Amino acid sequence: MEEIKAWLSSSEKNIDEGIALFQKYSRNRALFLYLSRKRDERKLIYELEKLSKFTNLKPVTQPRSVRNKIQTPQPPAPDTEDHKIINPRRVNREDLPDQLKVIYDGVAEAYKFQRVVHEKMKLATTDEDRAALRADLIKLDDDIAAGWEAIDRGLLNPDTGSEDKTQPAEKQYTVQDIKAINSARTFISRAIKKFNPEQKDKLLDRINLMIGLEAAVSIDTRNKLIELNVIDQNSNLLGK
Fold first, then answer.
1. Which residue, among 230, 240, 159, has the nearest Cα to 197 in the 3D structure?
2. pTM
3. Of 136, 148, 224, 213, nearest to 180 (Cα)?
4. Residue 97 C-beta-side C-alpha neighbours within 13 Å
5. Domain stop point among 20, 48, 83
6. Could you give the number of structural domains in the chain?
7. Strand pairing of 216-217 and 238-239?
């Protein structure tokens, strides 16, 4: 904790050292990869300030076994003068309280689905298919980042589980729910790229599933569904 505070109080901040500190103390590997890639100093300072509030902050340690761990893909860019790769870590699921294990399992499922989408990207033959798959990957990245944020908040507020009184409570999903949500998002993304009115009922089935689970699609997707007259402005489908 003291080294984070020292970095925050320094007049000339070395961003590589700041990213290394974030990696050392945070389990949010999606955000770590974002910071490594974008080198967003303002975001890095904000995240380290949050970590500095932990009362018993300890470095993330390497587990003895890889069982029940999420494997983080390496950042795609090579290690250069302008892009420094810092080795990703693993997290021990069994160290988490039960309510955070549920979130962890959701993140693990999102990583698995992400790998599937990457494989489909290799086989995509049209720009439309690739665009739909890219939209899926962006949404999965958002879900993964949100999951790690919820875990960090839960560890920051151990007396209240994953709840942070300054923010709305995160809805918790089962692994089965997350599979259904990811599948529905993929179907919706592809359906609106090549909209066929004859498939509207199938599309509405996925939309109703998303509404029932209080799961969101992107704002762009929601707007496209309105444009196609699949839903109206007053639909309960969440967009973010």
1. 230
2. 0.42
3. 213
4. 15
5. 83
6. 2
7. parallel
